[in-house]
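Structure in, sequence out. Go:
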């Protein structure tokens, strides 16, 4: 058990003594992004057919309020209305 812990400590010490390029290759160092290297984006623009509206089929006017309810909905309405 002592040999394993000694090996781990020795490995950590040897890795910490490595140069930055070795640490980067092993993925042990973190590299922060450079905020001055951000690429500018093109400005936003509207598509040419932005003002077009979808085609809507004309609907018939239903004056009957009870039409369109399912049987269970109609039963609940009957209970509420008494």
């Amino acid at each position: 058990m002592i040999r394993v812990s000694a090996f781990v400590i020795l490995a950590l010490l040897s890795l910490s003594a490595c140069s930055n390029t070795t640490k980067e290759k092993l993925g042990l160092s973190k590299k922060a992004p450079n905020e001055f290297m951000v690429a500018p984006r093109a400005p936003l623009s509207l598509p040419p057919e932005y003002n077009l509206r979808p085609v809507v089929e004309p609907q018939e006017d239903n004056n009957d309020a009870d039409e369109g309810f399912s049987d269970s909905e109609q039963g609940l309405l009957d209970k509420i209305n008494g």
